[in-house]
C-alpha cells in the first residue's frame, strides 16, 4: 500500500518539480558574479587627484597658487625609496602580498570594535586609504568601511601595486590643506621631496597618521617623537643600521614653512575671471550660452563651472602679462592720492605694443574679498566717451581737420538742451579747443552731424559688455549717458584704438599650459581697424591738447607724448581720466560705490593725479 502511495505522490509532485526546475534555471541565468555586481556598482574610470595650479607674471615668477587643496603630483621615480618604505612599514607591511584587504587585520579590528560597541580600531590597507582619500569621506561608519573595501577591490583590479602606492603618496593629507609628499616637502622645507634627507623624510612621514596631533607647526615635539619611532622601526626591520638610526635621529630638523603665494589680488582676481572666459571661448560654451533658451542657460553655466573647476584643479600654469613693478606703482598711486579718503578708485593699464593688460587696481587698499571695480564696476563714462563717439567718428566720416570749426553755443535735440559745464556759450571754436575744454554742445553737434547709427557703429566695435538697445536710440550717450555704463578696463581698451587705429580686446592671459609645458589654451583674437590712419593722427593731436592746454593739465606725466580725456558725470558722481603715452594706455575712475556727489574733490583732480603717477 505504501509503495502505491509513494508512486502516486511522485506522479503528483513531478509537474511541480519540473516547474521548479524551469524557474530555477531561468533565475540561474540572471545570477551575476561578484565581480560583475561590483563592476556595476563601483565605477572607476580613472583616478584623478586635484593639484595646485599656478599663475605667473611676465617673467615667469608665480604670484598666485590656486589651491584647495594644495597638491603637487610627484612622479613615482622621484619619490625616494626610503620614504616609500617608511609608509609601507608603518601603514601596510603586507601591501605587496594582499589584494587590497588584509583579512587578519580586519578580524582583529572587528574583535576590538565589537567589544567597544563602536569603531575604535581600523584595519585599512594602503589601497583602502587611497580609496577613502579619493572617493569617500572619513566618517567612522560601517557603511563607509564596506564602501572602502569595495573601492579597494576595484582599484586592485585596475592598477598595479606601484601605481597604487604612488597615488597614495600623492593623496595623503599633511595638514594645512597640504596633500601629497611633494607638496608637503615644499611646504615644510621648501625643497623637492627627492632633495630631503632621511631625517626630513621620516619627519614628514610622521604627519599623516594623525595630521592634527602631529602638526609640525603647532606640535613640533609630537612630530619629532613619532619621527624617532619610525626611525627605530626602520632599524628594527633592518632597513638602516643602529648607528645610522642614531645619526638620523640626532639630525636637527629646521622647518622652513613656505608662505602661501597670493600677491596682487586686484590683478589675479581678474585673471581667474578671464580664465573662465578663455575656457568658455575655446570650448564653445560662450556660443552655447548665446543660443540657450529658458532653463538651458542655467544647465550650460553649471557645466562651464564644473569644467573650469576641473581645469583649475589639474595643475595648470597660467602665463600672464602682469608687470609687478607697474602693478605696485598703480596700487601706490591710488592709495597715496586717496589716502584718508572715503572715496574709491580703480585703474587699468595696457601695454601699447602687445595690447596686454599689465596692471589693474580694483580699489583703494584692495583685498581678494572685495568687489573689483576695474572690471566689475560699470559706471557712466561722462566725457571720456566723447573722443570715441563724437570726435573720432565725425573726423573719420567727414575728414575734418583739428582746426575745423564747430559751434559751442546752445543746442537742443528735441526738448533736450544740454549746457556746457560752465553754463556759458563760446561761439565758433576749433575741434581742438572744443575737446580741450570739453564743451558739451560742440560734442553733441558733431554727434548729430555724423548721425546716430553711424556714430554708434564705431562704438560697437569695442565690445562694451552692457550696451543696450536703449543706448542705441538715446542721444544722451553722446555726452556719456548710458543705461549701465562701462568699466575702467573697457574704457582703457577702447582708448588703445588711438595707438594705431586698430582694436584688439586686451587680455591678461598669454597662454595656459600643463606642468609639462603642453599648450592648453590661448587667445586668438585678431586686431580690427576702427579708425583710418589720418583720423588716428588727428585724434592723438586732439587728446594731447587736452593735457597741454585743456582740462587735464594736472595729468601731464612729462612724457614725449601724452594725450587723454577727462570725464565728469552729472552731479560729479564720477571722475575719470583715460589716455595714452607712447608705451601705455590707461584709464582711471574715482567715485563712491553708492554714487553720490564728490564735487569737493573736483579741484584736487584725483583722477588726473593717479593717472599721472602711474604713467610718470
Automatic annotation (TrEMBL):
The keyword Nucleus does not apply. It comes from Pseudobacillus wudalianchiensis. This is Penicillin-binding protein. One of its GO terms (cellular component) is plasma membrane. Keywords: Carboxypeptidase, Cell membrane, Cell shape, Cell wall biogenesis/degradation, Glycosyltransferase, Hydrolase, Membrane, Multifunctional enzyme, Peptidoglycan synthesis, Protease, Transferase. In the N-terminal section; belongs to the glycosyltransferase 51 family. In the C-terminal section; belongs to the transpeptidase family. Its main location: membrane. One of its GO terms (molecular function) is peptidoglycan glycosyltransferase activity. InterPro entries: Beta-lactam/transpept-like, Glyco_trans_51, Glycosyltr_51/Transpeptidase, Lysozyme-like_dom_sf, PBP_transglycosylase, PCN-bd_Tpept.
Amino acid at each position: 500500500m505504501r509503495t502505491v502511495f509513494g508512486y502516486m505522490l511522485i506522479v503528483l509532485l513531478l509537474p511541480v518539480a519540473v516547474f521548479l526546475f524551469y524557474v530555477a534555471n531561468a533565475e540561474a541565468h540572471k545570477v551575476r558574479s561578484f565581480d560583475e555586481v561590483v563592476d556595476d556598482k563601483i565605477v572607476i574610470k580613472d583616478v584623478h587627484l586635484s593639484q595646485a595650479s599656478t599663475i605667473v607674471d611676465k617673467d615667469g615668477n608665480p604670484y598666485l597658487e590656486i589651491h584647495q587643496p594644495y597638491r603637487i603630483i610627484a612622479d613615482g621615480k622621484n619619490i625616494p625609496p626610503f620614504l616609500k618604505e617608511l609608509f609601507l612599514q608603518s601603514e601596510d607591511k603586507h601591501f605587496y602580498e594582499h589584494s587590497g584587504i588584509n583579512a587578519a587585520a580586519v578580524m582583529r579590528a572587528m574583535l576590538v570594535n565589537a567589544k567597544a560597541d563602536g569603531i575604535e580600531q581600523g584595519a585599512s590597507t594602503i589601497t583602502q586609504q587611497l580609496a577613502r582619500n579619493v572617493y569617500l569621506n572619513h566618517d567612522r561608519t560601517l557603511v563607509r568601511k564596506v564602501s572602502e573595501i569595495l573601492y579597494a577591490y576595484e582599484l586592485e583590479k585596475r592598477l598595479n601595486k606601484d601605481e597604487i602606492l604612488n597615488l597614495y603618496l600623492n593623496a595623503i593629507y599633511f595638514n594645512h590643506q597640504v596633500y601629497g609628499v611633494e607638496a608637503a616637502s615644499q611646504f615644510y622645507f621648501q625643497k623637492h621631496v627627492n632633495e630631503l634627507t632621511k631625517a626630513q623624510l621620516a619627519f614628514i612621514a610622521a604627519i599623516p597618521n594623525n595630521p592634527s596631533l602631529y602638526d609640525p607647526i603647532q606640535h613640533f615635539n609630537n612630530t619629532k617623537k613619532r619621527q624617532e619611532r619610525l626611525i627605530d622601526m626602520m632599524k628594527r626591520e633592518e632597513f638602516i643600521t643602529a648607528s645610522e638610526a642614531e645619526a638620523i635621529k640626532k639630525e636637527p630638523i629646521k622647518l622652513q614653512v613656505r608662505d602661501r603665494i597670493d600677491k596682487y589680488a586686484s590683478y589675479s582676481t581678474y585673471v581667474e575671471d578671464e580664465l573662465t572666459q578663455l575656457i568658455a571661448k575655446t570650448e564653445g560654451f560662450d556660443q552655447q550660452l548665446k543660443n540657450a533658451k529658458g532653463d538651458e542657460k542655467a544647465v550650460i553655466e553649471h557645466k562651464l563651472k564644473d569644467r573650469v573647476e576641473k581645469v583649475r584643479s589639474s595643475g595648470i600654469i597660467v602665463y600672464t602679462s602682469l608687470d609687478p613693478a607697474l602693478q605696485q606703482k598703480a596700487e601706490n598711486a591710488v592709495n597715496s592720492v586717496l589716502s584718508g579718503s572715503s572715496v574709491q578708485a580703480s585703474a587699468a593699464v595696457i601695454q601699447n605694443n602687445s595690447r596686454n593688460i599689465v596692471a589693474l587696481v580694483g580699489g583703494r587698499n584692495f583685498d581678494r574679498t572685495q568687489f573689483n571695480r576695474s572690471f566689475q564696476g560699470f559706471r557712466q563714462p561722462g566725457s571720456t566717451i566723447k573722443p570715441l563717439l563724437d570726435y573720432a567718428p565725425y573726423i573719420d566720416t567727414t575728414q575734418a581737420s583739428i582746426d575745423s570749426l564747430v559751434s559751442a553755443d546752445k543746442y537742443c535735440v528735441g526738448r533736450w538742451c544740454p549746457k556746457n559745464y560752465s553754463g556759458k556759450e563760446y561761439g565758433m571754436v576749433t575741434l581742438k579747443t572744443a575737446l580741450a575744454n570739453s564743451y558739451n554742445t560742440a560734442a553733441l553737434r558733431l554727434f548729430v552731424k555724423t548721425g546716430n547709427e553711424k556714430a554708434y557703429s564705431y562704438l560697437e566695435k569695442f565690445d562694451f559688455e552692457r550696451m543696450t538697445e536703449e543706448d542705441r536710440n538715446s542721444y544722451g550717450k553722446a555726452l556719456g549717458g548710458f543705461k549701465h555704463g562701462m568699466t575702467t578696463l573697457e574704457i582703457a581698451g577702447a582708448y588703445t584704438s588711438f595707438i594705431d587705429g586698430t582694436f584688439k580686446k586686451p587680455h591678461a592671459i598669454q597662454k595656459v599650459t600643463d606642468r609639462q609645458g603642453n599648450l592648453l589654451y590661448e587667445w586668438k583674437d585678431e586686431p580690427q581697424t576702427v579708425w583710418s590712419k589720418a583720423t588716428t593722427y588727428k585724434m592723438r593731436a586732439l587728446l594731447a591738447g587736452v593735457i597741454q592746454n585743456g582740462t587735464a593739465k594736472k595729468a601731464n606725466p612729462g612724457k614725449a607724448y601724452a594725450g587723454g580725456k577727462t570725464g565728469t558725470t552729472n552731479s560729479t558722481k564720477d571722475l575719470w581720466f583715460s589716455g595714452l603715452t607712447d608705451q601705455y594706455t590707461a584709464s582711471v575712475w574715482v567715485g563712491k560705490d553708492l554714487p553720490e556727489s564728490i564735487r569737493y574733490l573736483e579741484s584736487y583732480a584725483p583722477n588726473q593725479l593717479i593717472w599721472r603717477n602711474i604713467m610718470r
